[in-house]
Design brief:
Elements lengths: L2 H18 L8 H17 L6 H8 L14 H10 L5 H16 L1
Helix pairs in contact: 1-2, 2-5, 3-5, 4-5
Length: 105
Amino acid sequence: MTRSESLAAYLRAQARRRLDRVESNDDGRNARCALALLDAAAYAAGLPDDDPIVLLLDQAGCYGPLGCESFDPGEAGTRLIRLWQGGEPHELLLALPSAIAAANS
């Protein structure tokens, strides 16, 4: 599995998690978040592994210390992804390294 595929799989799993949430009176928030994450997953799946965004995520440690593990943004990145309300897919991906760095400092 390529880095881009691993990232897309992670985002799809988070989207499924949002769809499975049942909250009274969420006014469709979970569905909107899930759609935004699916959009980000589709965007990520199309990125080549040498794309600057993928390289930034690798430098942030999202693919393990050697850069060859499955995508895992850690606690701070997961929090950002789970709270993502929507926007352009690249905005989410570009926000991850900063969130991870802030949590590690």
